[in-house]
């Protein structure tokens, strides 16, 4: 028996409520950032009972889902919720990983002035060489029109930055779950929330300044836009390949740890044909 998971909820449920079931499970396949993070936590703590395949970071899935899909869904989500015009807008994208690269490319193509914040020196160099100005968030937070988080970290945009934003600034998250924007700090008596439409809220300060918060800090691409069917098919296919890899693996090849899908599963045409003949 194998676990095919998305978000880690099924794995977490089995681990907490039915731990004895793990003796019947031979492997786990996980395709989301959150689920993979949970698996690495279990592995680090020595509590992962079976081999697990990290599909999220496999090359094919990562490029189509994180880079190419986000390049389209960032514009779709912002248009659906705010009807904003991108030409001439000043935008700061926090993080220049695969998601950040996709968001920056889309916004630049429509004439936005794009700034990038990035702590990784290689990613920062890539942003610079791609023609973006690499800055600290504190340098631009007062005058940007849109703030987009794509880092995978926690409280990237804290209350101190939210307080300094200009009136009408749009704030949204394309990164990890709902942790990148410190939304909890906005639920205080001095601030007023005005629900405008589904997934769109105005947060109003005592002096009348307001910011436009999308999806209450949750993922914009999942909450406010559609995902191309091709991208979904890529993800499903990659998960199927991971299941086949675990099933066909020789005894002892995979230990109780988290593994990446071997590249040969995606790039070797003959191998794919052999796999299809076994399905």
UniProtKB/TrEMBL annotation:
<dbReference type="Pfam" id="PF05221">
    <property type="entry name" value="AdoHcyase"/>
</dbReference>
<dbReference type="GO" id="GO:0005829">
    <property type="term" value="C:cytosol"/>
</dbReference>
<keyword id="KW-0554">One-carbon metabolism</keyword>
<protein>
    <recommendedName>
        <fullName>S-adenosyl-L-homocysteine hydrolase NAD binding domain-containing protein</fullName>
    </recommendedName>
</protein>
<dbReference type="InterPro" id="IPR042172">
    <property type="entry name" value="Adenosylhomocyst_ase-like_sf"/>
</dbReference>
<dbReference type="GO" id="GO:0006730">
    <property type="term" value="P:one-carbon metabolic process"/>
</dbReference>
<comment type="function">
    <text>Catalyzes the hydrolysis of S-adenosyl-L-homocysteine to form adenosine and homocysteine. Binds copper ions.</text>
</comment>
<dbReference type="Pfam" id="PF00670">
    <property type="entry name" value="AdoHcyase_NAD"/>
</dbReference>
<dbReference type="InterPro" id="IPR020082">
    <property type="entry name" value="S-Ado-L-homoCys_hydrolase_CS"/>
</dbReference>
<feature type="domain" description="S-adenosyl-L-homocysteine hydrolase NAD binding">
    <location>
        <begin position="66"/>
        <end position="227"/>
    </location>
</feature>
<dbReference type="InterPro" id="IPR036291">
    <property type="entry name" value="NAD(P)-bd_dom_sf"/>
</dbReference>
<dbReference type="InterPro" id="IPR015878">
    <property type="entry name" value="Ado_hCys_hydrolase_NAD-bd"/>
</dbReference>
<dbReference type="InterPro" id="IPR000043">
    <property type="entry name" value="Adenosylhomocysteinase-like"/>
</dbReference>
<keyword id="KW-0520">NAD</keyword>
<comment type="similarity">
    <text>Belongs to the adenosylhomocysteinase family.</text>
</comment>
<dbReference type="GO" id="GO:0004013">
    <property type="term" value="F:adenosylhomocysteinase activity"/>
</dbReference>
<dbReference type="GO" id="GO:0033353">
    <property type="term" value="P:S-adenosylmethionine cycle"/>
</dbReference>
């Amino acid at each position: 028996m194998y676990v095919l998971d998305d978000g880690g909820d099924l794995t977490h449920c089995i681990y907490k409520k039915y731990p004895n079931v793990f003796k019947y499970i031979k492997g786990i396949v996980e395709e989301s950032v959150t689920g993979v993070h949970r698996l690495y936590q279990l592995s680090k703590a020595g509590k992962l009972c079976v081999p697990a395949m990290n599909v999220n970071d496999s090359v094919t899935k990562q490029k189509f889902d994180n880079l190419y899909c986000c390049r389209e869904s960032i514009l779709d989500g912002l248009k659906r919720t705010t009807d904003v015009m991108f030409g001439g807008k000043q935008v700061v994208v926090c993080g220049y990983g695969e998601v950040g690269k996709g968001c920056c490319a889309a916004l630049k193509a429509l004439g936005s002035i794009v700034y990038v914040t990035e702590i990784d020196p290689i990613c920062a160099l890539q942003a610079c060489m791609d023609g973006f100005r690499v800055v600290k968030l504190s340098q631009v937070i007062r005058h940007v029109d849109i703030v987009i988080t794509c880092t995978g970290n926690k409280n990237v945009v804290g209350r101190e930055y939210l307080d300094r934003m200009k009136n009408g600034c749009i704030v949204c998250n394309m990164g990890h779950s709902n942790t990148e924007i410190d939304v909890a700090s906005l639920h205080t008596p001095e601030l007023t929330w005005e629900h405008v439409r589904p997934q769109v809220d105005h947060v109003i300060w005592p002096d009348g300044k307001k910011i436009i918060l999308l999806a209450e800090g949750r993922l914009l691409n999942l909450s406010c836009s559609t995902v191309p069917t091709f991208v979904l098919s890529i993800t499903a296919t990659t998960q199927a390949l991971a299941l086949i890899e675990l099933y066909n693996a020789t005894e002892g090849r995979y230990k109780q740890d988290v593994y990446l899908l071997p590249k040969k599963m995606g790039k070797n045409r003959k191998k794919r044909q052999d796999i299809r003949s076994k399905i």
